[in-house]
Specification:
By secondary structure, the chain is α+β, with helices and mostly antiparallel strands. The chain is built from ten helices and 15 strands.
């Protein structure tokens, strides 16, 4: 039975590009894969035919020979034999399908496709939780932190090999870091068990780092905390993380900031809130009070006559600075009218007298009890 034209098998034109060719093969290979067509005895033959066609057309030299001589280019004694293609086994669909397998699943097999895996590995990123006061968050500060981490081994310069020797290419995976195994129609890649995926082995490991290329050490780092930081602010220190394995690049250090609660001020973004107690006399008669500000200063606030608990006043520009920006938040003053305690007999006497004389000076109380009386009358009715 004569072989079908390879372009016809794959359903593509002769001027097809590599991307379209692979896409066409992948689609048809998935359609006729024997594992998906167990009840179709012709599926395996069609799958082999597809793989043979793709294995030929994906190779530029084979494709050129096929375009010129057709199937005769690969027959024994044909033009292909003189050109170097004679005797090559076709139908090697496992090899052809592995290209598509790599394209579909390579990212899940732990490494780049089509190239040797580098022996060096990037170091891990590190996290450090730092607590700062609200005053430090307001003005910014500089802190020194001690970070336990891995640093490049000075004895072997990070190579992991002793005496200035160099790591050798792994004989099991030829430096790929991965080995392939045939499973039915699939070619499956696994991490090389000899080198652990590094692609290289060390014959004489460094006695200090035992071949890792890095050692544990505590480092002191100076960290600049900018003004305006909030809880959750993340500061990245590039290259200050864990040293890479066998000379690989260093990871980063991330500082996570936590601003401690303050005994006087409560923060809300760039604004501050401060609850200030005032006496009944000051709230009733009015007056001036001094309140603290986050910068350590004082501000004079005028209390209007008849102020009630919960009244708020704004001090503009007395809040927190914006992180890495221009502008300043405000400070909100909330009055808390304080009821006096531990009264003397004279004070109690004066308050009773004041109470008798102030029946018309409590509008909120009068309004409330009028509503209560109306409510009770309605219930009785």
């Amino acid at each position: 039975m004569a072989k079908r034209d390879y372009y016809e098998v794959l359903g593509v034109d002769r001027g097809v590009d590599d991307g379209t060719l692979k896409k066409a093969y992948r689609k048809k290979a998935m359609e006729f894969h024997p594992d998906r067509n167990k009840d179709n005895p012709e599926a395996e033959a069609k799958f082999k035919e597809l793989s043979e066609a793709y294995d030929t057309l994906k190779d530029p030299e084979k494709k050129a020979a096929y375009d010129r001589y057709g199937h005769a280019a690969f027959e024994q004694g044909g033009m292909g034999a003189r050109g170097g293609f004679g005797g090559q086994q076709h139908g090697d669909f496992a090899s052809a399908f592995s290209d598509v397998f790599d394209d579909l699943f390579g990212d899940f097999m732990g490494g780049p496709r089509g190239g040797a895996r580098s022996r060096a590995q990037r170091g891990s990123d590190l996290r450090y939780d730092m607590r700062v006061t609200l005053e430090e968050a307001y003005s910014g500060t500089q802190k020194t932190v001690n970070v336990p981490t891995s640093v490049s081994c000075g004895s072997c310069s990070g190579t992991g090999a002793a005496g200035g020797s160099e790591p050798q290419t792994c004989p099991s995976c030829s430096g790929m870091g991965k080995v392939r195994a045939q499973q039915g129609f699939f070619t499956v890649e696994r991490t090389c068990p000899t080198c652990g995926g590094l692609g290289q082995t060390i014959k004489d490991p460094c006695t200090v780092c035992r071949g890792a290329g890095r050692v544990e050490k505590e480092r002191a780092l100076s960290v600049n905390i900018p003004a305006g930081v909030e809880t959750g602010t993340r500061i990245r220190l590039a290259g200050e993380g864990e040293a890479g394995l066998r000379g690989g690049p260093t990871g980063d250090l991330y500082i996570f900031v936590e601003v401690q609660p303050h005994p006087i001020f409560e923060r809300d973004g760039i604004n501050l809130h401060c609850s200030v107690p005032v006496s009944m006399g000051t709230a009733a008669l009015g007056g001036d009070i001094e309140v603290p500000t986050i910068d350590g200063g004082r501000s004079r606030v005028k209390i209007p006559q008849g102020s009630q608990s919960g009244r708020q006043m704004r001090l503009r520009g007395k809040g927190m600075p914006m992180l890495r920006g221009q502008g300043q938040g405000d400070m909100m003053i909330e009055l808390a009218v304080e009821t006096p305690v531990n009264l003397t007999s004279r004070q109690k006497e004066l308050l009773r007298e004041f109470e008798k004389l102030s029946e018309d000076n409590n509008p909120e109380s009068s309004s409330f009890f009028k509503k209560v009386k109306s409510f009770w009358d309605g219930v009785k009715g």
